[in-house]
Design brief:
By secondary structure, the protein is an alpha/beta fold. It has two domains: 17-143 and 308-350, Rossmann fold (3-Layer(aba) Sandwich); 144-306, 3-Layer(aba) Sandwich (Rossmann fold). Helix content is 37%, strand content 15%. The protein has twelve helices and twelve strands. It has helices at residues 53-67, 81-93, 110-118, 144-158, 191-208, 221-224, 229-242, 258-270, 290-298, 309-325, 359-364, 371-374, and strands at 41-47, 71-77, 98-101, 123-126, 138-142, 177-182, 212-214, 252-255, 282-284, 303-306, 346-349, 352-355. The strands form three sheets. It has a six-stranded parallel sheet, with helices on both faces. Strands 7-6-8-9 form a four-stranded parallel sheet, with helices on both faces. Strand 3, helix 3 (110-118) and strand 4 (123-126) form a beta-alpha-beta unit.
Length: 375
């Protein structure tokens, strides 16, 4: 049976937040807040100093939970994990009924979380999985494996081999289409989720069927891992100079982020290739950044994967409310998120594939970004 990325609790959450489609055929739906009656105190500790992302997350989760009746103790931690451990201890001592934690260091919270367990306080890891402790009850974040699958689907779609939902078109080229993979940072905790989704689940199968091939022969994790845009540009340039010569055309490039896609695009241009020409490959990114969306509209990039933080905020708040209400969710992933000490039940938020054909619906009509922001 062909893999489908998780669409978590879509019908249970009348918020409709997680009914966002995994492919790109339908627009991201409007989001409607549930009317819940929740009591209890939720302690939240998130990293500070990492841009606005966690500031927005904390505010959004707090607003939802207080709207539903909960009390929220929201704190932001500096880069020292000892400071975050102290925050957790203080919130438990103050009577928190539930904790939501994004660790500043994934493996540094075993002691305060053991104390939380002893006090009967459940813990939700938000966005980053807390590692090496059995005292984590839930994880909520993006479906990184499913997003990796979507990257592969988008590449095959751009090549005319499948649609955005992963269904094959039945087309088979005379010769396999050469492609290249630029995965994320090998040291990142979620590297293998995205890598396995794109490479193991989609592209290796496509290669086995004779539809595509890894043009350079590079597909192992250490060969395709990409630490930053500069290293991506250097590798792309090297491949263009050594592999894609004498009539050999690169047909597709998958990347782990729109910033990496931009570096690949710059190298392609420096090599004398032009968007819209027969020699220009399908380029896929992740993140739906402003730069990535502009590249889609200009024809430089075929697709990106929208990861809408608003949906994760709402998923975290809903999961917290469900725990406080004593409700069981039947849509949790209970087999894939091993933190080194236990398999943590996970509430996963899917991505949405964005192309030029559905950018208006998925990005602008959904309120994710305005036309003026994209430019």
């Amino acid at each position: 049976m062909r893999f489908r990325p998780a669409i978590a609790i879509a019908t249970v959450l009348t918020v409709t937040m997680l009914s966002a489609c995994t492919g790109g055929a339908e627009p991201t739906p409007s989001r409607t807040v549930l009317d819940l009656d929740v009591t209890g105190t939720v302690g939240i500790t998130l990293p500070a100093g990492e841009g606005s992302r966690y500031l927005e997350a904390g505010s959004a989760i707090e607003t939802l939970l207080t709207t539903w009746g909960a009390t929220v103790d929201l704190r932001y931690s500096g880069p020292d994990p000892a400071d975050q451990a102290d925050q957790i201890t203080a919130m438990v001592d103050a009577g928190a009924d539930l904790l939501i934690v994004t660790p500043v260091q994934a493996d540094a919270l075993a002691q305060p979380l053991a104390a939380a367990r002893e006090a009967g306080v459940p813990v939700i890891a938000y966005d980053r999985l807390i590692r090496d402790t059995p005292d984590v009850d839930y994880y909520v974040g993006f479906d990184r494996f499913g997003i990796g699958v979507q990257v592969g689907w988008a590449a095959l779609s751009g090549l005319g081999l499948g649609d955005l939902n992963g269904d094959p078109t039945g087309a088979l080229p005379d010769e396999p289409y050469p492609l290249e993979v630029f995965a994320g940072d090998l040291a990142a905790p979620d590297f293998y989720y995205g890598y396995n989704g794109t490479v193991r689940q989609v592209l290796e199968l496509s290669a086995e069927q004779g539809s595509t091939t890894f043009g350079s022969g590079q597909s192992a994790p250490d060969a395709v891992a990409t630490t930053d845009a500069r290293s991506a540009a250097a590798r792309m340039t090297q491949l263009l100079q050594t592999v894609y010569t004498e009539g050999v055309s690169l047909r597709a490039v998958t990347t782990a982020g729109d910033d990496i896609a931009a570096a690949v695009i710059a190298s392609l241009r420096d090599h004398g290739l032009s968007p819209g020409s027969d020699q220009w490959p399908v380029v896929v990114g992740v993140g739906a950044t402003t730069e990535g969306l502009r590249a889609i509209e200009s024809g430089e990039q075929y697709a990106t994967i929208l990861t809408d933080d608003r949906l994760v905020h709402e998923a975290a708040a809903y999961l917290a409310a469900s725990v406080l209400l004593g409700e069981q969710l039947d849509s949790l992933n209970v087999k894939d998120y091993d933190n080194g000490a236990r398999t943590v039940p996970a509430l996963l938020v899917p991505g949405t594939i964005v192309t030029a054909d559905n950018l208006q619906a998925t990005i602008i009509d959904s309120g994710y970004a305005s036309r003026s922001e994209i430019g």
